[in-house]
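Office hours follow-up: a student asked to see two folded examples consecutively, so here they are.
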Amino acid sequence: QGLVMETLSRLRRQAARERSISTDEIYKAVVAGNSTMIHLFAGIPPESIRLMPFITGVNQVPPFPAREIGLGVNSEATVDCLPGIASYVGADITSGVVSSGMCATDQLMLFIDIGTNGEMVLGDCTWLITCACSAGPAFEGAGVVHGMRATAGAIEEVWINGQTYEATYRVIGDEKPRGICGSGLISLLAEMFVTGVMDRSGNVDLTLDTPRARKGEHGAEYVVAWAGETATNEDIVITDVDVDNLMRAKAAIYAGFSILARSVGLGTSDVEQVLIGGAFGQYINVAKAVQIGMLPDMPYDRFHFLGNTSVRGAYMALLSREMRQWVNEVAKMMTYLELSADNTFFDEFN
């Protein structure tokens, strides 16, 4: 909790400086986050979330005065944590569903927030069903040799020539590359598969007539950018181990929404709109995400990338009592599907 409060205090002071106000003038705070972070923020022991049967201490934290946790705003300010659903579907998802406009129409929609956990919600807001799958941090840059978050210096798009196997790429910030972010990894996987640089099992073909496909210290690898082109003065590569981690992550995401749809007697083709939240979703190339089997194969105009839906929902709840009540109503609609309860997820994943 101390680390959480330290980070929030820094951000709070920065926001106050930018608006030329005193932090003592802040009288209301609305908090959205995953279940573990909400527990840590509010000083509620989170141990039960990681232990069988994986339940939260609380899903709806009652509003409380800021002085109880030392938030560093007006001592009489009210802190309002938005409601979560279950251990792995937290307030960031209920907040995201509201701000995404998912309930603004009567269409069947799928809301996905892709991160270390892939949380998803399916329904038309007369009913909603939700689940979470452990995608792992690969698409956020962790567990990949040259992975990084989507910040300046990250390769966000890759193209491979099918004859020469040479790579070209686009970098966030138009500067020398330092690594590859999630959208770049999706793009790279698709290009490697389509051009034959790797096979269906994710193995780099070392028989190709190119120095980019080679044996490295982590096994077979493909060189995306040579050392002379990079900000780190080392080759940026993707290895067979990286590919394996990425394939597991994308399989978990696809298996999650396939099972979610099947659990209510629907197929992914029945979904009329797919809403993708989270910073990760801002850079994804839909065609390439479909090519690698991460997103369902449907017309591209059905996909909508919304950015940080969690913080947007928190803004809405902060500024409007009606929207705050609506977040509660949406939370009550959601039925949680626990994917670890049977072997269906593991069968689909494999």
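And the second, which I mentioned at the end of office hours:
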Amino acid sequence: MRKISADLIIPVSSAPLRNGVVAIDDDGTILSIEEWNDLKDVSIEKFSGIICPGFINAHCHLELSYMKGKIPEHTGIVQFLINLIEYRNQRNQNASGGILAEEINTAILKAVAEMKTQGIAGVGDISNDNYSFHVKSSGDLLFHTFIESFGFDPLQAESYFQKALQLFQEARASGLSASITPHAPYSVTPELFRQIFSFKAYHPALFSYHNQESDAEAALFKSAQGDFIKLFHRFNLPGKTFLPTGKNSLHSVIDYFPPESRMLFVHNTTTDAADIELIISKLPESYFCFCPNANLYIENTLPSFPLFKSYPDRTCVGTDSYASNHQLSILQELITIQQYFPSIATAELIRWATLNGANFYYWNKRLGSLETGKKPGINLISPVGPAFELLK
């Protein structure tokens, strides 16, 4: 058994403790958390900084880890997608399948190892292939795998879905928690939305969705103009004949989502107060996930985080992928948020990064907070720098 203490303990499920002590057994299970009453107890290990639970990386793309440093920054989402697709196609052409698979698998292993060292205990991961299945089924991190379904031709919706279904069945056969999910509004036709949400073989029924990442997305839906038309023409996609709705992307597609579905809306870079109200009213089980360093990498802008402060239990944090980030560190995401929005308290940010994600993924019996009987992982944030203050 170990007894550990720090300047501040943030259990998340209860008020922060100064001069607190967390007792854990040899496998990391919490035995107690209480005030430090016995100042003469020499068995207590005292650290400088903040003790909090292990982080939940609510949104990641492990299979893109081999693209670290390969995609230019600050290009906007459309050029980012073009660069990503062209780099992937180039690597497929220039390397045999075995060599590329080895490169991808090696990068995934490094990424998972990094997440462990960064105090991450659970991950919501996007998959378009099976490269990450082995490491996710054999490691000690908790994972939920979202099998992403997308396609631009309404006549091919059944084919797109069957491809995702085959990968979903492979994931489940590998022992993974998994579900099929729509990619983004611009890449999923109404027919494919209906295919995805009519499939009922999920437990738990979780969905992840790239939402309102740029102004270009809104321009596409409102007027069929803007940068996304360039993407459609570049790859000769059926979306080049996209019919506008006169509304932004969220308002255009939200009625396809079943009201009872537990949706994770990811990025939300241009989401405004009316959009948030619409989501909560139509999809009350929804959560919001932010990947600020990826937003800066791609669009060089950030969501309006204060708009979401009315939903403190529905806000999560992710890292996105190495194609759009320099590291896979939830702490670095929190530091970025607090640098740009210093009014958001440290304890609130840590809740976003821990218990909220655990609640979304149904991992809250084990992860997300420092409570007796849980095995959440224990992080020490030290030293505490000026950008991430001890307590606001």
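Two things to take away from it. The chain is about 35% helix and 20% strand. The first strand starts at residue 2 and ends at 5.
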